[in-house]
Amino acid sequence: MAIQYPPRERLANVPTPLQPLNRITEKYSTPYGGPQLWIKRDDLTESAMSGNKLRKLEFIVAEAKALGCDTLITCGGEQSNHCRATALAAAKTGLRAHLILRGKALFGSDELPADGNLLVDHLAGAAVSVYPLREYVEQLPALFEYWAEHYRQLGGKALCIPTGGSDGLGIWGYIKCAEEVLADCAALNFVPEHLVCASGSGGTQAGLTLGCQLLGVASAVTGYAVCDDADYFVNKIVADVADWRQRYGQTFGFDKSKIQVTDSFIGPGYALAGPEIYRTIAEAAQLEGILLDPVYTGKAFHGLLEDVRNGKYRGSNHLVFVHTGGQFGVFPHRAEFMQYLDGL
Ligand SMILES: *Cc1c(COP(=O)(O)O)cnc(C)c1O
């Protein structure tokens, strides 16, 4: 049965390419009996708006317009790809964006020159409020309410978008991507045994997992956590799917036992990576001409290659890694790359 999607604002260049990773497969998978590795290039959803968040924003912006909103309020880390994509998508669709950002230090980090995603946020004309880490963590709902009220007072109306755009609305983006990538594979005459992505706020994995189930395809979706543990992601994905069911009156019986999360490659913490991640990023650039990032895709891809080596994917023929973007987040890490460059 065809999936009925809610209204979508067209922002992404889809379908994104599905490409084989032949040089990496030859070096890191074939010798261990692993599958052919493929990459779904969601880093190419757009140039500046690049990455996975744009697929979610297509549905979020359409909803904002349907509700008569003139402002998008969202939140994230200072180098949030989601906030940057929201700022640009708002600009393009004539909406205002207000970003609630988590600063590093006690007093935020307004004093630092804007770099990477944050620089783009400013270029896109977004209003940016940076809060000290503790205030952000403890007060986030109140901060959303404060700014929503601020725009109400001005006669406007804001849509509040949760972290990463991950909720029952945003996951439509990756339900749709599941349908797209399975069609890409079908055109090449295979069904992938595995789909793999980085998991940060869980919406990408939730959408892919739900999408495969809705389509009745047995492909296993595995998320590589970049921050919280596996239990957190299982609960988050269940919650996003429950929100989706409730919002859209869906009765589909989602099988939560199919949620697979690997939390062995988080390293020191969110946005903190060891030398092995920087090395994998350099190697992917050198072998395949692709750019991974140290916060999400580099960690997930590194974990994937380790698991291929450990035999986790032995016996399967095709594995698709969904490249979720993050290019702008590479540059603020220039110092770490330099530190490890000699050993690469
Ligand atoms: C946000 C993000 C992810 C994680 O996606 P979620 O849906 O939040 O789990 C992965 N990669 C990149 C580059 C991202 O910006």
TrEMBL record:
Pfam families in the record: PALP (PF00291)
Signal peptide boundaries: none
SUPFAM superfamilies, sorted: Tryptophan synthase beta subunit-like PLP-dependent enzymes
Keyword match Cytoplasm: no
Co-factor(s): pyridoxal 5'-phosphate
Keywords for this protein: Pyridoxal phosphate
Protein name: D-cysteine desulfhydrase family protein
Gene3D superfamilies: 3.40.50.1100
This protein's record includes keyword Phosphoprotein: no
Family designation: Belongs to the ACC deaminase/D-cysteine desulfhydrase family.
Limits of the Tryptophan synthase beta chain-like PALP domain: 12-325
Provenance organism: Microbulbifer bruguierae
